[in-house]
Amino acid sequence: MLGNYYTLTELLLWIPLLTGIISFLIKDSKTVKGFALISSLLTLLVSCISLHFSDVTHHPEYYNYLNVSYVWMPYIGSSFTVGMDGMGLLVTFLTAFTYPIIFASTHKREYAHANVYYGLMLLMQAGLMGVFVAMDALTFYFFWELAVIPAYFLSSRWGGESRVRVTFKFFVYTFIGSLLMLIGIMYVYFHTPAASKLSDHSFALKAFYNASLSSTEQFSLFWLFFFAFAIKMPIFPFHSWQPDLYEQSPNSTVMVLSGIMVKMGVFAMLRWLLPIFPDAVWRYQNIVIILCVIGILYGSCIAMVQNDLKKIVAWSSIAHIGLMGAAIFARNNISLQGVMIEMFNHGINIIALWIVVDIIENKTGIRKLSQLGGLAIKSPALAVFFLIIVLANIALPLTNGFVSEFLMFTGLFEYNKYFAAFAAVSIILSATYMLNMMQKVFFGSTNSFTENATQISIGQKIVLSVLVLTIFIIGIYPTPLLHLTQDTVTDILKTLT
Amino acid sequence: MMFGGVFFKKSAVAKYWAVAGIIILLIANILEFRTQSFFKIDVKEMLRFDDFGLHFNTIVFICTLLYFLLNGKAIEKVGRNVSEYYALIFFILCGVSIVSSFNTLLMLFLGIEILSIPSYILTGSDKQNLKSNEAALKYFLMGAFSTGLMLMGIALIYGGNSLGSFYIHMIELGKGPMPVMIAAGLVLLVVSLSFKVSAAPFHFWAADVYDGAPTVFAGYMATIVKVAGFIAFINLFKASFGAIQYQWQILITIIIAATLLIGNLTAVFQQSVKRMLAYSSIAHAGFMMFALFALNNTATEGLILYTLAYSVATIGLFAILVKMNDYTIEGFNGLYKSQPLLALAATVFLLSLTGIPATAGFTAKFYMLLAAVKDGHQHWIVILAVVCAAISAIYYFRVIQAIYFKEPSSTSHDMDVSKGFKYVLIIAIIIIIIAGIAPSLVIDWIYF
Asked: I want to staple B48 with a disulfide (CB 3.0 to 4.6 A). Which of A269, A309, A408, B103 is the partner?
């Protein structure tokens, strides 16, 4: 049955899509919450099963379980091809794993028109999954744009005060980037070999890898793709949409945006940028790494002086993403492995951070550091969880952050000592603002705002323990993840030499 | 394929006769696909019914059917002579049929005139309204002027080509230097046809005309008449001037650049949705001109798709606009609360016009851009087109934001919306989404 009729990859797409459309029709808010949660758990189940079938080199028949191709537009050479390799499995697992956690952590929150809210969240999951599994350039572009539309509606409807303007800026920014990428896709398309008799060129990923692009063509096309991905990640100086958007959006949307949507950019760089334009990567990698390192330092410095919890997390996210970008362009085995794991870890860590921020905001109603304090007295469990999450963000050994950051810094160091030295300053800076946040919010004495804070509920404890457990497990035993993605890394490196 | 207007007495009944007439036309057209005609007329090779032209006709007839179904009530509100309005629209369709299948320059002129004159009348059909009269006069003067230019161009080409022929295939170009008369004729034809499709810098009439005309008819003119102009353009240029494309391509490129920039940038500043749609039609005309820029198969396929996507979306939007009291963007505030289906339909149409994937508008724009990239010259125009498409998101999304994220103002949206209207809107939405997800359904018909 598997491989002939259904593939796991498609299920990952269709389950969120169909359940998303159905949840628009469910009027009762309690039912729709439960429905969304069950749907995300179902997707998680499918993703776990797909992880089991990941070893394609030793079991070639598994290839059909994970990859499928449908005829879509044969006359221009585009087919609806979806599939997962090691990297795809990792990020789809991240998406599938974090969605139930997000739904569970915001379960108590009441949204007006909950059916539309959960429907849009599920549609966004479908769009994100689509980006991660697309093996055809047009399919990839489709899902790339489609993932942004639910985010646009979600943030504009349920967000903070200046949400409409901020989300609009985000949308137009990403739209310009995506359209430029579309032009790039078309140019590369006309240099691909034919895949079938019906058309002269092909949009398939394999064809794009085999496109015969001269160096000069690569140099200009590289930037078209790079802009789109850099805007999405974001990399300095294309980051101006991000802090405002994260501040204004509703919390569960921010979790998806920062946890998964930025991985779209990173993933796309690894899948669609590096292998197709190796000459351009060679030429421009220093410029890009410099931009990324500036972003790391800039993000960390600004995070240090922020007063708003959400803004601190937003800027720290920019710093982490900058590090990922620099490690991608350092282009050696260690740094790329580091990026792979960091994609997963950053998703987990940042979502954990947002969950705690959300809890704090719910309990005390304020987000300003200057007004908070002494929460450890009121809810010690939350303080313990938060400390572990903060340490994971700082990349203390034993936590998952350490594994990925160590790999990335080592790889960057191998490439160029000075870049690594500058980037490593960020470790110290991140310790500063993270621990500062910890201290201001939790330690010290309570004040009028935090007097009435209560213990966190059992549900929240369970969610946070799952995340903390993941942090420790990956921190102590990251080998399964490394094995999963090793093949992909080797393939990418092969195209670059 | 020509349908003469028939005059009726009762206004309400005219609606049903019109719908029946369209369906008969559709059936005749589809039968023609399979080379079974209702009646054969010996047109002496002056008209040529190839698959491309017939396919285009089918799409236009379907869009007109949609238009009739959506706007039956609104047409009645315009004035007393309802059946005349339907008759005029059928005359326009007659012109469309000629223009999609002409083989001689004479037929081109005939078709364009039959297309335009009823449009002038329809523009001024709201006789009590001063704006409508002004718009009609403006349209008529500009239109007559451009037709005069076209005739001069035709005369020059007739005189200039060695065979002394009107037949567009017989203008033998590319063999030796181009005679001055033909060059002049070509430029005149470009100018006059650009007038008809409101390409810059000949677009100045469009905003005032579409704004002054009764909204119902503005919707029809901004779509079908414009699209027919493009088919005329393509048919003529592909057949006659295709061989020397590189010589006039730069002219077309400049026109495209001006059209895109003027159309998109001015639309951003509009407060009235009706005027914004007028400028957006100019911007879309710029995109459709890419079919001229790159005379390859992808371009003609893209033009067909663009016809469908643009017409359905704009007809739908104008139909919704007709129902509203207030034509400004604020008038759309909070529409999702009072009329959720209309809000959803308006959103889908606006997303399609912007070019978001999974809507027909995206596939249409994609084909146009693909054709331009395939052609390989003038790379800058493609980047400009894409930047302008992003700019267009600004003004389309402003309406979406008004619909969903703003509170309704005091004037409520009490609109006379029947169930039939809603069903037809749903059909329009389905057409757009299907054409967006599986465009091969639309395109493969050309190679039937």
From this structure: B103
